[in-house]
Specification:
Keywords: TPR repeat. The chain is mainly α. It contains two helices and no strands. The chain has one domain. The protein is elongated, with a radius of gyration of 11 Å. The model has no long low-confidence stretch (mean pLDDT 88).
């Protein structure tokens, strides 16, 4: 599995952490937006990347 550039990986981690926090506060729509933004940072097929799991 190819490796992502560190800057992109860190953005994905930050967006997912924001999504997790929003879920904890019951804001599911905003959390979904954060998770979707994180997936969009992955090149090509997002499911081919470890960061998608």
């Amino acid at each position: 599995m190819p490796e992502l550039p560190e800057a992109i990986h860190q953005q994905i981690v930050a967006l997912c952490a924001q999504g997790d926090e929003l879920v904890e506060h019951g804001n599911l729509d905003a959390a979904k937006q954060q998770y979707t933004a994180a997936l969009r940072l992955l090149p090509d097929n997002p499911l081919d990347w470890e960061a998608a799991t």
